Amino acid sequence: MNNKIALYGSAKKLTQIEGVLTKLFNKNNIPFEIHLISDSEQFLREFLIKNDFRLFMVSEKGTVSYMMKMYKNFDQQTTRYACGKMNFPLTQKELSDHMLEAVKSSHSCPYGIYAAKNAKMSRLIQHSDIECIYRDNTKSVFFLQSGETMEVPDSISRIFAELDANYFIKCSKGVIVNFFNIEQVSDDYKTILTKSGAEIPMSRIGEKRYFKSLSLSIAGVNVFNY
């Protein structure tokens, strides 16, 4: 499935925006199809009313306005549009930040419960409450939104197998993060900041998994080649 994108503006601005989109999507193996339009009537008549376009972008007066079609609850049945405005010239970081903000404003973590157990207690933890899980020597530690932690003897691999791998990301070795509890990502994509303020390292493979979850949240399907 290709992500169809319609861009409207002057030739010079369209070239800059197209370059940023191409680098970001190619870097993360996201298939896409860009349509460049310099005629406003054609943009409205032929592209804006078509329902198979995922993203519309208009560049004028030093800004880039966008309207992004998103599937709510990942079922491809209910749709909404996220709108916003970015600075021109566009950057990959600003684009990905706006995509994340759009997801955060329209989705919540898919419902699920993890049965955590150690020698002292058993506890049912809702997926939405989990910020991250990390390996510490011989135990795995759940870090929750409330700031609480719980240690379990289960391996990271065993825990990950029981979670939704689309939205719980192995962001680096021995660390799992809940995509829906990510507040922001650093400019170099090497660090994740969770909603509680915890900083988590992200590897190059973790970066790809992050963009996979971002794409799944917007499109409702896996549009990656892996």
From TrEMBL:
Pfam families: LytTR. It comes from Sedimentibacter hydroxybenzoicus DSM 7310. GO terms for molecular function: DNA binding. Signal peptide: none annotated. It comes from the Bacteria. Residues 120-215 form the HTH LytTR-type domain. This is LytTR family transcriptional regulator.
